[in-house]
Write a structure and sequence with these properties.
alpha/beta, six-stranded parallel beta sheet, 8 helices, about 40% helix
């Protein structure tokens, strides 16, 4: 007979290793770090091309409003996939202009899908998510701050009950929340029901 042992999530080894390294790095560079996580997009789904461009506008606004903060942009896809994902030249040009603007900053670092998400979550003070998807949820499970930017009208995800607390459809409101979190005036954990969060965490991983 087969025997099943609960061993935890093997992907979190990278997270715990990065946490240790991040603690050492903070002794040298104490700047806050915000992890920005995009998503796949298509005009055939609720994550449209315009929503992706709107998320980049949010990223640009966060970068401008938080001049003492470093930004890590973790893409779910390759740059080529994103460029070719736009169905018209106008949106493609807008994307290239926006991402080129961000890449000129020494406070902005871009990574594509060849890099492991867990290590970036470990180094971040806060995760900003495009839509109701996994990165911010993983961060929250691990005790990290996370927020969702969602203008799609999604009401199916359990966290959408926390509108204007961890889920935002307005850039200005989200930016103000991020400022409050980074300055320790607010926390996602002031709002989220721990039992709801535990439903996403079938077992606990300890280092």
């Amino acid at each position: 007979h087969d025997k099943v042992e609960v061993v935890g999530c093997f992907l979190l080894r990278a997270y715990f290793d990065a946490v240790t390294k991040n603690e050492e790095d903070r002794k040298i560079n104490s700047r806050k770090k915000v992890l920005i996580c995009d998503n796949s997009f298509s005009n055939a789904i609720h994550f449209s091309e315009d929503f992706y461009l709107d998320f980049l506008d949010l990223t640009i606004a966060l970068h401008a409003e938080l001049p003492e903060t470093n930004f890590i942009f973790k893409s779910k896809n390759t740059r080529d996939w994103i460029v070719n994902g736009f169905t018209d030249e106008k949106r493609r040009r807008q994307y290239l202009e926006k991402i080129s603007f961000l890449l000129k900053s020494d406070r902005f670092i871009y990574f594509d899908n060849t890099n492991q998400l867990e290590s970036f979550i470990a180094t971040a003070d806060l995760v900003v998510n495009m839509g109701m998807s996994s990165p911010a949820t993983i961060a929250l499970i691990l005790g990290k701050e996370g927020v969702y930017f969602d203008t799609t009208g999604n009401t199916m995800h359990p966290f959408t009950r926390y509108k204007n607390q961890i889920v935002f459809d307005n850039k200005g409101t989200l930016i103000n929340h991020v400022k409050d979190v980074l300055n320790k005036r607010k926390s996602a954990f002031n709002y989220i029901d721990p039992e709801l969060l535990n439903q996403y965490k079938p077992y606990k991983d300890e280092k």
